[in-house]
Amino acid sequence: MNFLKKHITLILLLTVGCLSAQVTFEAKVSKQKLGVNERLRIDFVMNQDGDNFNPPDFNGFTVVGGPNQSVSNSWVNGVRSYKKTYSYFLAPKKRGNFTINQATISIKGNVYKTLPIKIEVTAAVDKPKDPNDPDYIASENIHLVAEVSKTNPYLNEAITVVYKLYVALDTGVNNWREIDSPRYNDFWSQNMDTQGQKVQNGTYNGEDYRYLVLRKTVLYPQKTGKLNIEPLTLDISVQVPTNRRDIFGSRLMKRVNRTVSAGNKTINVKPLPEAGKPVDFTGAVGDFSFDVTASKTELNATESLQIKVGVRGNGNLKLFNLPKVSLPSSLEVYEPEHTENVKTTLSGMQGSISDTYTVVPQYKGKYPIPNISFAYFDLKTESYKRLSSKDIVIDVLEGPTNNTDVNNNAATSNIGKQRVVLNSDQFAFIKTKTAFKSIEESFFFKTKLFWNLLLLPFIAIPLAIVIRKKKASRDADILGNKIRRADRLAKKYLSNAKKSLGKKEAFYIALEKALHNYLKARLLIETSDLSKDKISSLLKEKQVDETVINDFIQIIESCDLARYTPINNVTMQDDYNKAAKTISLIDKQAS
C-alpha cells in the first residue's frame, strides 16, 4: 500500500511540473465593446521568452501607440515566475463588428498562436469627465489652433494661416509628429521659416497657456467660391500631472499620447468686380508703382540700349504678366530678360519685377516710344487703377538713312517689325585654343605594374592562410566571442546614452540597455535572469564590494523611476558618470 502511495505521489509531482512548464501565449483586450471615439488596449502575454513575434494586421483600427514591451521576472519561494507582454493602443476607424486575428510567436522552436477576438464598435459615447483621468486631462490641456487672417478675401489677395499649439502651464510635451499635413489645393502657397521659434505666454478661452508657433503659411487663392484648407493633425506625447506624489511631495507625471487637429477651415473667395475692369487687366492685385526707363536716349546706329519695364510694391507680384513694349520697326528688339526681386512675408509678396529689352537701332533718326499703361486692382479702395509711363524719344545721331521711308516718316512705323532672338552659342563651333600631345608608343610588358601584378598572388596566398587560421581560432572561441559581442553592444548603448543627454526618455532607455548588456557579458546570464536578487548574488560570488553592488542596483532603479518623474540635465549627467564609474569598479574587483 505504501509502495502504491509513493508512485501516485511521484506521478502527481511530475504532472504539476509539466503543467508549470507549459507554454501559454494569449491576447487580452481592455474591452470588447467600445465607442468610435474611445481607445482599445490589447496585450499579447507569454510566460516564456520567445522570438519572431508577429502581430495581427488590426483591420478596422489605427495603431496610435505601441508596441510597448514589458518583462516581469520574479522568484517566490524558489519558484521562478516570468511574463513578457507586447501592448498596443488602437483607435477604431469606423463603427461595426471587427475581428482581431491571430498573433504568432516562436518559443523554443515551436510556433504559438493567440485566439481571434471579436470587437464591437458603436457610435461615439460620452466620456466621463474624470479629473483624474490622464486622457481627459490631456484633451483639456492641449489645443492645436489654425488662425486665418481673413476668411473672405478677393481673388489673388494674400491671407495667412498660423498654426499654434497651446499647452496648459502644468502640462509637458515631449515631442510630436505630423500625422497629416494640409495640402493647399487651389492656392498659391509658401511656408514661412519657423526655426528658432520660442515658447510664448498667452491665453486660450480666457485661461493662461503657453503656446508655440508650429507653422506659418502665406496663401493666394486662385479660384473663387468656397475653398477648403485641410487640417494639420499631430500625434503628441504629453506628460500630465497625476494625484500620485514622490517621496519629496512632488506630483508624479504620466505620459499619454494625444492626437490633435486644427480642423478644416473654409475660405469664401470673392471674385474681382466686373464693373470698370480694364481690357488689358492681367490679374495684378495689390498696391503698385509702375515705370518705364531707357538706359540712354542718344546713341549711334548699331549701338545698344536697354529699356526696362518695372513694377514695384505689395501684391501678387509673381502671378501676373507685365505689359509689352511697342517699338518702331527700324529698331531691332531682343527677347526681354525677366528678373524678380521678391520676398514673401506674413503680409504677402513685396519687392519688384521687371522685363529688360535690349534695343539696337539700324538707321539715323528720332524714334518715339509711346507710353505704356499698367492696370491693377487696388485692395484699399476696392477699385481698378491705371498707371502710365512717360513718352520716350530715342535720338540716333550717326548712321545710315532709311531712304525708303524718309518721306513717310518710316521711323515710327510698326509694319514688318521682327524680334531678334539672341543665340549665345552661334559661334561655338570655332575653336580658339588647341592642346596637342605627342604620340609615343608604350608597352605594358616588363613595366613596374606588370611585375607587381605578377608577384601579387604569391604574396597574398601566405597572408590569406595566416588570416584564415586566426579567424578559425577566433570563431572556435564561442565563449570569448559572446563576451566580445556583449561588450561591444554595451559600449554602443553607453555611447548612445551620452549622445542622448538632455532627452530624458531616450537617455534612460539607452543607459538601461547598456547596463543589462554589460551584465550579460560579465556574468554570462541571459535577459530573462536579470532580476535584482540574481544580480546581487552573482556579483557577490565575483567578490564585488557591497557598496558597488548597491550603487549598480540603484542605477537600474533610477532608470525605471526616471521615466515617470521630472529629471533635469544635471541629474542625467550624474547618473551617466555614476554608471561609468560603477562599471569600472566591477571590472577591477570581479574575480
From TrEMBL:
Signal peptide stretch: 1-21
Protein name per UniProt: Protein BatD
Keyword match Signal: yes
Keywords: Membrane, Signal, Transmembrane, Transmembrane helix
Top-level lineage group: Bacteria
Species name: Snuella sedimenti
Pfam families per record: BatD
TM spans (from-to): 449-467
Entry annotated with the keyword Membrane: yes
